[in-house]
Amino acid sequence: MEFLDASCEAARGVSLNSALLKTILSKIILLLLLTLCLVSLASAKYSLEGAKTDITVNASGVVHVEESISYAFDGDYADIHRELKALPGESIRNVRGRCSDKACKLKIEPISEGYRLIGELPDSTPKKLTLFISYDYYGAVKVHEDVSELSYKLWGGEWEKPLKSFKGNVILPVKNESEIRYWTHPVAYTQEANMGNNIISLRTREIPSTQWYEIRVVFPRIASSGFGSVKVDEVRGLEKIVATENVYQQKNSILNSLYRKTFLFALFVLVFPLLIYYRYGREQKIVYDNVSEIKVPENSKPVLVNAIIMGNKGTPTIDGFTATIMDLVNRGYISLRNLKPEEIGSIYTPELNSSHRSESDLPYKSDSESPYTSESGFRDFMVELVNNEIYSDADSDAEGKLSELEDFEKDVLYLLKTHAPERKISWKKLETELQSGKNFYKFLTSWNRKVQVHTTFDKYFQFTGNIYIYWFARTILIASITYYILISGFFPSKAFPLASKINVLTSLIGIFGFAMIRCSGMFITIFGRWTPEGSLYYKQWDNFKKYITDLSALKEHPPESIETWDSYLVYAISLGIAKELLQNMSLIVPSEQLRESNFYPISSNYNRSEYSSGNVSTLSYSGDINREDDNTGSS
Question: What is the mean pLDDT of the chain?
Fold first, then answer.
């Protein structure tokens, strides 16, 4: 019994699997067929090569229309269709149609507003085909007290493809053609319009997709026979019609003028930045013939040199902060020394080691005199505060050695004090503590502002051109948005196609203004320029950079003492070239002189025979707002 049950279950399972497989296969086949159909439809294209409409208004006011629409096909199509719709109070009658060369089987179906014509195409769609339609339109003519009026859309706005060309004729029951007045809308599409023998002949340029084209004709009042052939009212219509058309023509005239002015303004928008650059961005010539600077150009604080040469608008980079610490070392407020053996165990923990795993970030190579090298590969030295005033309770402005310091230099000492309550802290531990919280970011933000005050950057760099560009970009952005809204409101693009061109130009102007705003930081060096004093300052420090990074120049004109080397190193840090100078020091300065350097824990560890891959460790902080590589100014 169990065996039979198992056999039945197995058979049922096979049956279910077979049915599931068939279902899956059928869905896959259906999906493939649908995909092929979509691909076929996507690859199939058609175009509207031309159209012609002949309108004949008979004496009773009935409008007879004959249309022809020429198609060109690239691919296979199932059918073509055309809908004839009448407005309320109007009607379409006696609809007939055919395709050229009997290329389609035409069906005419009534719909609520008129008729739908569907031309079924053969399996092999012809390359070209013309659809011919004729019908009578009742109610298209309005009979006023003084004149008759015909308003008729020669081409509707329901087409998804542009019409390459259109021709039309309007035949009116008038003996004297001088009594006929007509207008076309939008007039921008009309390429040619003539009238002769009571016939108005029209020809247009390309009509875009979803756009319409119509004619409005006023002619002598006809006697209607009734039966809904015309619409009759007892008001004088000519004056109102002419007034409406005059307003339309005035708007067209205004729009043409606005287009010309918008185009000229777009050219001005492109030329104006060039004029600003020519007037305010070009560097002024100065007299400076020195090829190199073998001495510090002027007695300027290293952080101020960093802020002016390397920073952004007088704001220092993180190298400026590091240079300030090293400047305080060089001036005796701080000292650097190697770690003592008993200090290593108390400083280094697994957490500290794991946070500095990359040896390439450090300036040392191991030897008997080098600072401690942890298992993770980084090397360190001790930073000691040697001035007692910062640990006293006296007023920070009290007389003493600290009174010689600027406020931003005192801030650095007090920052070190908070992290070194025992007057000493290892460099890597200090760096780790500063990176661990947001307080250092807040400190840097405040500290940068203080430094920026001392730079007096306006004395070195002229922002006039950049300020003009700043307001110019915002003005054209706001103006283009406002102008776009006004043009769209007063000149609908369906009735005034030229408005679309104006809006495109306006949009491009607005985009240009927005792009200039977004890139305003990059434009400082283009539209701003160094003052004569700033140009001299920049060139002097640029030549000094070249000197201290050029080994042959240093050998030819070496610094006079190790104290001078130390001074150069501080400025090298502020200029971002400490690595190159330390490498040159290791090749030029004798070992016994290096021992006298305030930066011996750093400089002594550069090998004399090969360049080290290290650099002076710079405090890196993820929230540093000045981590920018672009310099303010140009050489």
Answer: 81
Confidence of residue 292 (pLDDT cuts 50, 70, 90): confident
pLDDT band at 230 (very low <50, low <70, confident <90, very high): confident
What's the CA gap between 118 and 319, in Å, rounded? 78
* 108-131: pLDDT as tens digits: 999 888 999 999 998 888 999 999
Where does residue 486 fall: left (phi above 0), alpha (psi -120 to 50 degrees), or beta otherwise? alpha
Name 37's Cβ contacts closer than 8 Å, sequence gap at least 6: none
Residue 474 predicted with pLDDT over 50: yes
SS3 223: coil
CA 215 to chain centre: 44
Share of the chain above pLDDT 90, in %: 46
C-alpha closest to that of 244 among 489, 493, 495, 486: 495
Rounded Cα gap, residues 612 and 360, in angstroms: 9
Contacts of 263 by beta carbon, 8 Å cutoff, 6+ apart = 505
| Per-residue confidence (pLDDT) for residue 29, from 0 to 100 | 57
Residue position matching structure tokens 């007045």: 181
CA distance 78 to 105: 11
Cα distances (Å, whole numbers) of residue 161 to 17, 74, 91, 164, 295: 50, 14, 27, 9, 75
- pTM for the structure as a whole: 0.68
CATH topology for the 46-235 domain: Immunoglobulin-like (2.60.40)
Residue 308 phi, psi dihedral angles, 5° rounding: -80, -45
Residue 406 has pLDDT above 50, yes or no: yes
Domain with CATH 2.60.40 in the chain: 46-235
Pairing label, strands 105-111, 63-74: unpaired
- CB 185, CB 277: distance < 8 Å: no
Which residue shows structure tokens 């169990």? 2
DSSP 56-96: EE-TTSPEEEEEEEEEEEES--SEEEEEEE--TT-EEEEEE
- pLDDT surpassing 50 at residue 74: yes
Beta carbons of 157 and 210 less than 8 angstroms apart: yes
